[in-house]
Structures are given as structure tokens and as C-alpha cells.
Amino acid sequence: MGSSGVTAGGGTPLFASGSTPRMGGVTPMFTGATPAAGATFGATPNYQYEGGTPLQSHFASSVETQSITTAAIEAKAKALEKEWNRKNKRLTSEYLDSILPREFFTVAAVPADYNPLPPEEPNFYEIAVRTMDVFSMQAGAAAAVTAGLDANGQPIKYDIPEDMGDGMPTMKVEDAAVFVELLKYHKAEKIPDEHLPSYLLMKNLFKIKNGDTMQRRAGTRYLLDKATIFGSHFIFQRLSYIWSSDILNIEEKHYFIDFIKSLLQQMGKGARQFTKEVIHLVEPLLTAHERILRDDGKQVLTLLTRVVGFQAVFAVIREDFGHAESIVRRHTARVMAVVGYAAGTEEVTAALRDMSYAPSALARQTVVRSMAELAKMVGHALIAALPEMVAMLERLLRDEKRVQRDAALAVAAIAEATAPDGIEELAPLVDVICEECMKGIGSMASPFIQAFGALVPLMSPYDAQARTAAMMPNLVNQFSTPEDEFRRVLISVVRKCVLAEGVTPQFIRQTILEPFFEGFWRVRRLAAERQTSGSLVATTVEIAKKLGSVDVLVKLSPDMKDESEEYQRMVLTAIKKVVDATGMDAAPDTLVTFVLDGAIAAVRQDELGTSKLVMNVLATICNALAARLRPYLKQVFDLIKRRRENREASMRAQTADLVSRIAHTVMLADGAVFLQDLGLSLYERLEDPDARALSANLRAVRSILGELGSRRFKPSVRELLKRLTFVIKSRNSHVQNGAIALIEDIATNYDTDVDAIHLHQLATRGLFELLDSPQRATRHACARTFGVIAKKIRPFAIILELVDNFRQDKRQIRICTAVALSAIAKECGPFTIIPYLLNEYKISEGKQVAVIVQHSVLKAIRYIFEAIGSIGKEYVYPMIPLLERALTETNIQMRRMAVEACRAILLSVAGNDGFEDIALHLLNFVHPNIVELLAKNEVKIGEERLKMVTAVVSYYEAARVVIEPGKLLQYLLQGLFHPARKVRDIYRRTYNLIYVGSPERLVPYYPRIENDASHTYVRHELEVLL
Predict the structure, then answer these.
(1) Per the count of CB atoms within 10 A, which of 20, 154, 870, 895 is most buried?
(2) Domain for residue 444, yes or no?
């Protein structure tokens, strides 16, 4: 590099002192890091701050910062050049003589043709910029400005324009300090060349952050196309700056992660140079509270590993294994686990084995943490690497205390991940773990006890019983520990030991049961800790499964009336789960009385009726008793009667729900008299003003009616049906669903006890309106009930009334009519509907309402064939003349609805032979509509024409399952090469659907291409006929 700074090729930056470096006449952007220099000092800023006196903009004064930055870069570049020259200088004879002994060496003659090329000199300026992180230098030089503070430390008020320009999203207040360049050059006619790349980069990153879907796509596409021009280093500098500015919410972070993934995919192997930046950017996401961010971090690291390779990533994170900060080491362990998941356990195990011999205890601690995280991620796939990991863990379990503790946690994680296998490989660790468990007390032994609990379920029954019997006295002595975290570990270990196959009920009853309840259930404050209480309840249920419900209920039932709401809730939850899991068949009468009395008392304590738990507990106990409930029926129904008449609507609803759940058990206990009185009372309350209570009453009435039958139900079913005529008019969806279900039960099972005229009126006036319900479940239940009613009272009267609705002006009424007819066709058979439809279509021709009626008929045909399925194969041929007539109409809407009806017919006959001719016949009428795009006087495609094209394409999709795709291909071949682009698009879209559905069936129909001199196209194996 000469004194003038000029080098061969013109590509090396000039290093003239005090001058701006140039590259081929254009100011370089320092590999992406644009200096923060603005215009000349004193220039008018491009926007003003709010306030009385205008202040000097920080945009105008950066000449000093620019000079300092440039001088620092030049000094660094000169130092790099000096170091490079020192390492690459020629070794002289004198120097070699000074370092090599004179004897035993002979100086070889230099070959005559030896003329080595001089080493290629790198671009020191570019290396200096990259290593010094110029953007951070400039950001540090103006840190107060970047943080949104002026020279006095006061917040800067930015004048944010409402419109940032075409294709730009709006700017938030907190974005101004970060994307300040966009405000600086918002209305500038020309942006200086040295700031243009930085402006364009921040502009498109701003689109990704705040833009809508199209703006984000445009910004991402621009940055990916220009990534090689901007330089990946520059992009990640700015991305890291935005990321660390604390202005991104969860959604915006997700958008940037998507951009990073796209950038990694495009850069490929070139991403190795910024591997460190990517890892440091995303590793905090692995410990985020939001699952979507954790998944994003895993996806980026997985993609990075697969792009650049495991060794490149490991080389970056290796130095952090022994980092002084604990959070950094934890992040490193998680990164190592994710990378190992992406690269495979073989490579990561080899790397961890090397690091396990590191002299630093912190590095060895990070190794075992990585093992634990890797086990949680890969699960059972870890078995292949288990022998090597066990060898490492066996050595690390005898290391320093902190390494031992994390090694024990790693053993626990590995045992849980490989369960129920892996005990053969983990066997050498069992003795070490048991030994440490016996030595330690309290939280010091917690990791080892946790590891022991994970190993016990993997052991053989004999070993599990022996190890548990030896360890349990030590654990029982620590049940009264005051440490919450250690208590949770003990509860979890007890549960795993109880679950072990070899641990006998006798051992549990003698050794564990009494200390367990004394040590854990008597500590009432545990109920306030959700995690601990949940683990305690789960362990209690497992003990009950081994011992039976009696031993556990005897311990828990005295606390069912406890005054502490939280503790009572924990007790009731445990009792409910124990009774659900084991029943109460073995419980003596005294215990049954005690438990039932406690459940009723708990219900009485719920004065507002808002607790679902107490009612669930009472219902569970009653259902578990079955016929044994008989002596307690009066006690239960006295409670129901008092709460049923309460002013609180929630309490009335809660009581009705209880009745609906125990009605069957009451009948088993000979409680028909109680249900009769209750049914009469509920009937009188079917006009409850509260929707929740009314819907619960309907469910209870349905349960009672199902148990008593129509003969013992009071009042009569006829009176109940009349009352439902008014109830079904409610606008509440829960009330509607309850009323529809009750009407369906009456129409199905008790149709002889009601008048047909009542069912007819209920169907045509009540249910018909609900066919338009916004709730999908309500519409389906209503249509099903409509069909059931029509079948019971004979459908013809209803059909005549429905067909008349085709002449209604309201479109929604006609759609509901078509749905009702399809429900009737499904229940009563298509023969009851189709003649009426054909007749209506014919006689309406020439009338003023012809179009409306014919549209409705076609829609009804579509719904009917969609509902009846393969039953409709017998009714296809009678529909052909009607469909032919509709497909040749000039009205595009008529043709579109006919195409949709044809599609429904083909799907209904799919899988049946003999309908290929019909499909081809209809295709000849449907196919000309595929190019129904633009009319002569239209510039934009109309909505109805788009619907037509969609309907035709869907008909092709349906025809594919009836006829050979090759025949459809013959219809599409010409259009695939049509000169008009819009026509080609439709044909290609249709072809793609057929190809995706049946690619292998198209192969025999492709054109045959003969071989030429250099290519062989013929595949003889495709011509083999079997």
C-alpha cells in the first residue's frame, strides 16, 4: 500500500489522512455501518421539535463524530496492516540461522523455477470497520440522542408526521428515537449518498415492524434482494440496535424472526460470518415467558445449525461455557440443546465429552445443564447416546458440589426422557445417586432425591421395592421440611415411588401413608401454592389407586367443612378425583354418611352458587354410590329444594345442573317420586328470566323426562311441548340448544303423546327461524330436529308450506327453506322432496318470480345431495334435464348455481360405478364457463364472474374422483398454452388441483416424446400392461 493510498484494481479504500475513505469514487458504508454524521453544523433540521424556542437539531452536528470515527478506523487499519506485514515478512538467512542449530542441517539450493506469488493483501479498512462495530461507536457517541434525550438529558419531543409516505406504515411515538433517520429525510428531495443505504435499510426494517401484511412482504423482499449490497454485517448491526431498543412487542419480534429466517435461508453458507450475532440475538428468546417467542428462538437456531453446520455454531458458543454470568451459561446450555436437536445427538455428545474435561468448573456445570436441556428436547432419541453420557455423568457426579447438583438434575431429566427404557445404561449411576441421597439433608440433597425418583419407575419390580424400602425412611424423616421447593420434590418422588410396579400396597400403608398425611396435608398454607397443591392432590390419587379409596377418604373427609376456602378447595378436589378413580364400593356406611354430609355442608357454604367444584363433588359422590344413595335421597333433595328457590340465578342454575347429573342415579335408588315433584317444579320455572338458569332447567327437565318416561312425567308431555313453543323464541344460544334438544327427544321418543299439529307449528314457526342462527351447533341441531319432526308427522304438509317460501323476496328465508328441505330429505328420503322441486322449477317458467324460484330450487338440490350422500345415486338421472336447462341459461348466476349443484351431485355418487358418462355429459355444459372472466365493457373482473370460475374449478375437482383425470386433462391441454394470461391462469389452477389430487393417474396420459440424439425420454416401464 503506497503513500498515495492507491492500490491495484481500485477496490481498496483510500487511507489518506483526514480524508473520507472512498471506494471507486463512492463513499463506502463501512460494510453497512453508516456513521451518524448529518449535515453541516448550523443547517436547518428537516423537522422541528415541539417547544417555545427552536433548538439545534442533533442531525446537524456530526462532523466531529465523523472525524473521530474515521480517525479511529484508520488507526485500527494501520495496526492491522502492521501486524499482517510482521506475520507475512520473508524469513532471512540470518534469522533462520539464529533459531536453528548449525549442525545436522544443510541449506538446500533454491530451485531455478521457484517464484512464489506474494501473499494477497486483505482490505484492512473493511476488517477494521467490521471488528470495531462502527455503528455502535457512533451510537455511543450520541447515546443520549439515540435514547431520545437531548444534551441536557431531557426527553426529545419529535414531530411525527401522520403520513410517512406511500407504502409506509404510521410511526408510533416510541419508534421516533430509533427510526430517527426516517424523520430526518422524510421530505428531503435528495438523500446524501453516504446516508442512502442506511436510510433504505431502516425504511424497510420499519415496514417489517409496523407494516401490514403487504408492506411487510415488500420490505422483506427488498432486503433479501439487496442483502449482498447492504452487507449482512450492516443488516444485523441495525437489527440488533432495533432489537435492543426495547420498542418491540411480541408480534413485532415474531415478524423480525421471520425475516431473520428468510435471510439465513438466502445467505446459506455465507451466514457463517454473522453466526455469533444471530445466536446472541435469539438466545434470550429461549427463556421468554411467551411460548411463541421460545418457539421462534428454537426455529432460528435449528435453521442456523442446518445452514452453517454444528461446528460453526459450537465454535461461537464454546467460549460461553465458562462465562462468569450464570444467565449466560444457562442460555448457552439451552442453545447447545437446540443445536444438538438440529444436528443430532452424535455430534453434540462428542462436543460435550470434550468440554466435560475443561479445567473450569463453570464449563463442566454448563455441560451437565446442556445434557438436561437436550434430554427434554429429544426425548427417547437420547438412548443412542446414553452410554457416552452415562460415562460423563458418572465422573461429574463426583465433581465439585455445584457440578454434582446439576449432574443429578441431568440424570433425572435423562431418566424421564428415556422412560420406560434406559435402566440398563443408567444402572452405574443408581448407587452413586442413592449414596448422595443418604448423605445430604434438605435442599442440598434435593437434586439427588429428584434423580432417585426418576430412576425408580425404570427399575424392575424387585429392585424398585428394595431401593424404595431402603430410601423411604430417609425421605419420611424430611417430610416436615420448611423449604417449599424441597417439599415439592419430596411429593413428586413419593408419587413416582408409589407408581413403581414393585412397591406393594402393604409397604405404602405401613411406611408412607401416615407420615405423608401428617407431613403434607396438615400444612394448610400449601393450598395457596397452586403448583404444590396440584402435585399433592395427584400423589394422593395415586396412593388411593394402590390402596383403595377408604384409607384416603378417612384421612380427608374431616376437612371437607374446613373454614379456609383454599384448603377446603384442595380437599374437595382430592376427594372428587379419588372417588372418580377408585369409586366408593368398599366404603362402609359410616364413611359414606360422613363423606356425603361433608359434601352437602360444602355446598351450603357456597352462598352465591358460583363454585362449580362443590357441586361436582356432590354429584360425583352421589353417582359413585348408585343404589346406596337411597337412604340419603331426602337429605339431598331438601338441599336441592332450598337452593332451587333462591333469588340468586347462579344458585338456581347450579342446582338444576346437579339434578341433570344425578337423575339416573336417583332412579337407581328408587327416587322416582322425588324426580316427579322436581320435574313439576322445574316445569313451572321454564320462564326463568335468567338465561343461564333457564338453560340449566331445560337440561334438568330433559334428564328427568328421559328417566321417568312420558307416563310418569308431570305435567304431561303435551303441556311441556306447548311451553317450549314460547321458550324457543329466546335469543340466547344456550337456551335455544337446550330447547331444541328437548324437542328432539319428545319428537323421537314421545311423539304419540303429543298432537301432530303442535309439532308442525313448532317446526314451521319456531325451528325454522333458528335455521338462520349465528351459532353453527344451533343450526345443525335445528336442522336435525326439523327432519325428525317431519318424519314423525309425515312430511308432505310441511313440504308444501316450505316450497311456497321459494317465492319470498327475502333471500335468507329461501336459504333456510333449502336447508329445511335437505334435512327432511335426509330423514324421510329424497323421493319426498325431488318431485316437488322438479314441478316448481317447471311451472315457474315465464312467471315474474321464475328466477327467484329456480335459484332456490337449484340451491335446494345442492343442499339435498350434500346431506344425503350416496343415497342420492338413485335420483341423479331425473335431475339431468333440469341441470341441462339451467346450465344453458344466459343468466350467469343461474349457471353458477347449476354448476354448484352438479358438483354436489358428483361428490354424492363418488365411489359408485356407472356415473362416468353423466360426469362427462355435465362437463360438456360446465367447461365453456371456465373462461367466464371479463365482459366487453368491464375493466375489472366482477364478483359474480369470480364465483363462476371458482365453481367451475371446484366441479373439475369433484369430477376427478368420478372419472379418470386423463380425460379431464384433454379438456385442459389447449387452455394451458392460451395466449391470454388470465385464461392460462385459470387452466393452470385447474390443472394443479387435478395434479395434486391424482399425480400418478395422469402419467399414462402425458404426451409421448421421442428420443433424440442426446436425450432419452421414453420410459418403457410405463408402457407395461399388467
Answers:
(1) 895
(2) no
